Amino acid sequence: MTLKSKGFTLIELLVVIAIIGILTSVVLASLNQARNRAGDAAVKANLSNVRAQAELIYDSDGDYDAVCAANSIAQNTTIAQAITSSFNANGSITLTCGKPASGAAANWAIAATLKTGAFWCVDSTGVSRGANSAGTTYTAQTGAAATAALVDGADVSCN
User: Fold this and answer.
1) In which element (H, E) is residue 121 found?
2) Whether pTM exceeds 0.90
3) What is the C-alpha to C-alpha distance for residues 91 and 138, in angstroms, rounded to an integer?
4) How far is residue 152's CA from residue 138's CA, in Å, rounded to a whole number?
5) pLDDT at 113
6) How far apart (Å, rounded) are the C-alpha atoms in residues 56 and 41?
7) 38 φ, ψ to 5°?
8) Higher-confidence residue: 77 or 12?
9) Which of 114, 136, 142, 144 is 20 to 30 Å from 32 by CA-CA measure?
10) How many CB atoms are closer than 10 A to CB 138?
């Protein structure tokens, strides 16, 4: 009499479950990286929209005074909405907005911290670039170099 086995052995089932577990962990890791990159892309797009809105402000007012208010971004509602969208896309965001301390603002720069830990900076000259927080040099209004993203409100360039 011969025994016919139907079904799978315990070892075969454990091997299949282990393979499924490994594949699942790889997919979840990739998904988290994609989610971080998507948040960074949203911040970059919103800061690009801020630059476009700032140019509309300059065309109507002749200066950038409504872009930044005492190193905060709150004077223009469209800019404030873009910043809020950046915050919602990234979960948490650190923004610094720079314009000259006195007189009409002829230039501005905004830097944001991305989920990856780097910074993204846009300014009134059309520069839009990213940099790591350590050793990054942004040109301040006085021409002095400052590390990290727009250390204070005197920084008006991402160059």
Assistant:
1) strand 119-123
2) no
3) 25
4) 11
5) 77
6) 23
7) -65, -40
8) 12
9) 136
10) 26
